[in-house]
Write a structure and sequence with these properties.
The chain is α+β, with helices and mostly antiparallel strands and about 750 residues long. It is built from 25 helices and 27 strands. The strands form 5 sheets. A 7-stranded mixed beta sheet has the order 15-27-26-25-16-23-24, sandwiched between helices. A 6-stranded antiparallel beta sheet has the order 7-6-8-14-9-12, with no helix packed on it. Helix 3 runs antiparallel to helix 4, helix 7 runs parallel beside helix 12 and helix 9 runs parallel beside helix 21. The chain is elongated.
Length: about 750
């Protein structure tokens, strides 16, 4: 298994009594969709539990395989109007693009129908009466409701027959009220037939517009994230019994097999090194940024990166026992236990939908039973008219568009600052965040080793630059990552390097070379001690550097070619560590200023973690934490009532990113981290965390404004419609006005002052 396969979301996981089916679902637009899926599947015999993630467009179904099959569960999802996407990341993206194109095309067609209807209505208002106006409007209404809106009608029926009331059901109540009122108007002039038919056309088109807007938000974010993903190879270089080497699918590799991993390749399996030596970057797995020297007999972890040597590895763990499979299980657990978010608009709609139906029923009772009690005769005409007007006025087009439009605006502002907000839920939650949990390696730090300090022996005759140049001259021939950091530091300062002779490597210790008649040693303090060199006054410096979590690289010289007994002396020491990002302390300070506490959660060792935390003033540190433990720690904070952002970039961060209320991934991080996150920071700027918080809060305020504007029309119009005095045309005008107000507030300026 590779990190790529961890994102596949249509897999079964067996347990003794139940099985789990995880499905990637297309077509979800709001929390009502979540509710619809949960109820439709949850009411099926044999289904034990249903977990739906709107943010990640997935559902996890626990079911009894003796009563239900995966095919039946997928078919139910399709029957209620949703699509079951391919597990392949690229094909799923292509399907999402196809859905967007289809939604756009349907919207264009319905828009044309609506434009023609509007022209006819304007002509009628202007006094023109043509015999073809009425049949044309009837045809346009039928084509819109039963043509471009057929999939909505299907979803509404499948929901209604399961006893589920959602926005699709309310739309169809309104649309059919328009059609029914129009047909009645053909025979009863009290009912304005053209206006009723036009309302059926308009509200269906606006529903299509709302659905397209929601899908656009998700697809555009997915498109941007897809460009960041570097697909990992799903194969390994398998060594056969006869010594031949073949490229084999990783799924076919078994324990005991031998695989070769060349320099620069990702290690695809957990195993033991049979031959070769190399520095291995395990930062994505353990959080430790300094590569670890590996040689014959050492264990390696799948997902880590082989740096500079060729390795032959005996496979020890595959399948469910491998490290990456364990991460996958932690991801599934985190996804299922991630706190759900009911969007503000959907909380309103939860009460609004049954409220509209109640008002419709009340209109009939008032003008039948009520009129009979008062006047002695029921007014059936006004009762039907009032009920139809309520259903038309009650269609919450503007309410449904309030959140998507605020998301589009907020998403655009975020993109300008290098922030990709993939989840609509993130917009709702960001304003409530009170804890930010950050990984160390690649998040607070740069994610690669660099020289951060140089200490020179005063008696050596060197200064910092000359010592760095001397060490870089020796390390120039080395392929070790720490050697590369020394050379890079010298090149940044444009220091001249000397030629060398007799270059020698002592694996895991250091290197020696002959420069200007002197043997120069560069390596660990232990290496110098083994060569008989006393650190002298540099010993306390080395101890301090190591206490701060840095790797101490010492430099020494031995007169002549280093024969036994030759005098040697230490010239200096360099501290190499994963340097803190320039804006890390600023980002933490800004978070503290808005009242958010900060926590470091890292797999790195405690000494290094506490040193970094102290440097950037982070409040609390949890070190040496495994991937599953990271998610558990986030869950513990959530259990205490906190809303949590998790910021990370590695494979070991993915379960915590998934578990957090808002997961933020660094754009240069691992694929699985990007896929698990709600927000992607495309650059390395940590202050973008605060920007995302501010944008989320502003977008929520914009949503509240939009809902207030929308509800002003719908909330006031529905009770008025009960009187029977509100004609369908005024219902349509109110709907157009409410949508226009929401559009104008979202993109054309502010009708309401934005309070932070």
């Amino acid at each position: 298994m590779t990190a790529q396969t961890l994102t596949q979301t249509d897999a079964q996981v067996s347990s003794p009594t139940t099985e789990k089916l995880q499905v990637k679902v297309g077509g979800m637009a709001c929390s009502f969709c979540t509710m619809t899926i949960e109820k439709a599947l949850g009411r099926m015999d044999g289904v034990e539990a249903v977990h739906v993630s709107l943010a990640h467009e997935e559902t996890l179904i626990e079911y009894d395989p003796a009563k239900r099959t995966p095919t039946e569960l997928r078919d139910t999802l399709r029957q209620i109007g949703y699509t079951v996407r391919d597990t392949d990341k690229v094909r799923a993206y292509e399907e999402q693009q196809a859905e967007l194109r289809k939604a756009r095309n349907l919207l264009i067609i319905a828009g044309v129908f609506t434009a023609i209807t509007l022209v006819i209505m304007i002509a009628r208002w202007s006094g023109y009466r043509e015999p073809w106006f009425r049949p044309t409007m009837i045809v346009l209404a039928l084509l819109t409701v039963f043509g471009t809106g057929w999939h909505i009608l299907t979803m509404a029926w499948q929901s209604l027959r399961r006893g589920i009331l959602n926005q699709h059901v309310l739309l169809e109540f309104g649309a059919f009220a328009g059609l029914l009122g129009g047909w009645i108007g053909i025979y009863n002039p009290v009912f304005p037939a053209p206006e009723f038919f036009s309302v059926a056309t308009f509200i269906t088109t606006y529903h299509l517009l709302s659905g397209w807007a929601s899908l656009l938000v998700r697809t555009k974010a997915s498109e941007a994230v897809r460009q960041l993903l570097a697909l990992q190879p799903a194969t390994a270089h398998l060594i056969l019994a006869d010594g031949r080497e073949v490229e084999a699918p990783i799924e076919g590799v078994q324990p005991g097999d031998r695989v070769r991993v060349r320099p620069g390749e990702s290690i695809p399996v957990d195993g033991r090194i049979l031959s070769g030596q190399s520095a291995v970057d395990e930062s994505l797995v353990t959080g430790e940024p300094i590569p670890v020297d590996k040689q014959t007999g050492d264990m390696v972890i799948g997902g880590s990166m082989n740096q500079n040597g060729s390795l032959v590895i005996e496979v020890s763990k595959v399948g469910e026992e491998s490290f990456l499979a364990q991460v996958a299980r932690h991801l599934e657990e985190a996804r299922a236990m991630k706190p759900g978010v009911l969007a503000l608009a959907d909380r309103v709609l939860q009460w609004f939908v049954p409220g509209v139906l109640i008002f419709g029923g009340a209109a009939i009772l008032i003008w039948t039973l009520g009129a009979w009690l008062v006047t002695g005769e029921p007014d059936w005409t006004r009762a039907v008219f009032a009920a139809l007007a309520v259903l038309v006025m009650g269609y919450p087009c503007a309410l449904g568009m309030a959140t998507p439009l605020a998301m589009i605006r907020g998403g655009g502002e975020a993109a300008k600052r290098g922030i990709l907000i993939r989840s609509g839920e993130a917009f709702q939650v960001l304003k409530e965040i009170d804890r930010v949990v950050m990984d160390k390696t690649g998040t607070l730090t740069k994610g690669h080793p660099s020289v951060v300090e140089i200490a020179v022996n005063p008696e050596s005759g060197h200064d910092e630059s000359s010592l760095l140049a001397l060490a870089a001259s020796v390390e120039l021939a080395s392929e070790h990552p720490l050697a590369r950091s020394i050379v890079d530091a010298a090149e940044e300062q444009e220091l001249p390097l000397d030629d060398f002779d007799d270059f020698t490597v002592t694996p895991g210790r250091g290197v020696t070379a002959l420069i200007q008649g002197k043997t120069i040693l560069v390596g660990s303090p232990r290496f110098l001690a083994e060569q008989g060199v006393d650190l002298g006054g540099l010993a306390p410096v080395v101890e301090r550097m190591q206490g701060e979590g840095a790797t101490a690289i010492t430099v020494a010289e031995i007169a002549g070619d280093g024969e036994a007994g030759a005098a040697g002396r230490a010239l200096g020491v360099m501290a190499i560590t994963d340097a803190i990002k320039p804006d890390a302390a600023q980002a933490v300070e800004q978070l503290h200023q808005v009242g958010i506490e900060t926590i470091m959660l890292t797999g790195d060792n405690r000494r290094t973690a506490e040193a970094v935390a102290a440097a950037v003033a982070i409040d609390q540190v949890f070190a040496e934490v495994l991937p599953g433990e990271k998610a558990a720690k986030v869950r513990e904070l959530q259990g205490q009532g906190h809303r949590v952002i998790m910021v990370g970039d590695g494979i070991n961060d993915a379960p915590a990113l998934m578990q957090a209320d808002v997961g933020m991934a660094i754009g240069a991080g691992a694929d699985i981290a990007l896929e698990s996150a709600d927000v992607v920071l495309t650059g390395k700027r940590l202050t973008a965390i605060v920007d995302a918080y501010d944008i989320g809060r502003a977008s929520y305020n914009k949503t509240v404004q939009n809902l207030w504007l929308a509800f002003t029309f719908n909330g006031v119009g529905v009770p008025l419609a009960v009187t029977g005095l509100v004609t369908p045309i005024w219902a349509m005008v109110a709907m157009v006005a409410s949508v226009s107000a929401v559009l104008l507030n979202s993109f054309g300026g502010r009708l309401v002052r934005n309070e932070d």
